[in-house]
Design goal:
single chain, mainly alpha, 7 helices, 77% helix, 0% strand
Length: 182
């Protein structure tokens, strides 16, 4: 019962911070998502199912309150899944819990998975007529490499990499703080 309550608090807090981070990033027009700020911490502390619950609840809240496309929940679930797989691999024989390296690796794998799945979702569900604006980063990459598909996917990879490394660092800080208290 104690473990379930701890996981529920982690999921609630993670969802709240992830939702707030995403709303903040949109509000100041930051070209990041910040919707997974604590997802890595929730996975590290509560396990895979807690991470998936945090991902789904965050995306449902963003869908209800911010009109975000619900299919992007798949990207966030992949973040939880890749974090779980990375943490399981890194935990073997590690005294003192997970290191910052584990969080950064989880961020890297999640960034790649999110870039591929997110760009795929955009390709399937967002019509160019609906979203004619091309970001400055895509325009810059396109100027260097005149291939729009490459520019869009590479820009998505860079954005996701930055976003997930920030999320990994924030999550690691919280994880270390909580594991010291336990």
């Amino acid at each position: 019962m104690k473990r379930f309550l701890f996981c529920a608090v982690c999921v609630f807090a993670g969802t709240l911070v992830n939702f707030s981070g995403s709303v903040f990033a949109q509000h100041i027009a930051l070209p990041l998502y910040l919707d997974s700020l604590l997802t890595f911490a929730v996975v590290a502390l509560g396990g895979l199912w807690a991470g998936i619950a945090c991902a789904v609840f965050t995306n449902v809240a963003l869908w209800i309150f911010c009109k975000m496309a619900l299919p992007f929940a798949l990207c966030h679930v992949l973040t939880a899944l890749f974090a779980h797989c990375t943490f399981r691999r890194c935990k073997r024989g590690t005294p003192g819990g997970l290191s910052i390296d584990a969080f950064l690796w989880a961020g890297l794998w999640s960034a790649i998975a999110n870039a591929v799945s997110g760009n795929g979702i955009v390709s399937l569900f967002v019509s160019p007529a609906v979203s004619p604006n091309i970001s400055t980063s895509v325009q810059g990459i396109f100027a260097a490499v005149p291939n729009l598909t490459f520019a869009v996917y590479f820009s998505g990879l860079l954005t996701n990499l930055t976003d997930k490394i920030i999320s990994a660092a924030v999550s690691f800080s919280l994880y270390k703080g909580i594991t010291r208290l336990r």
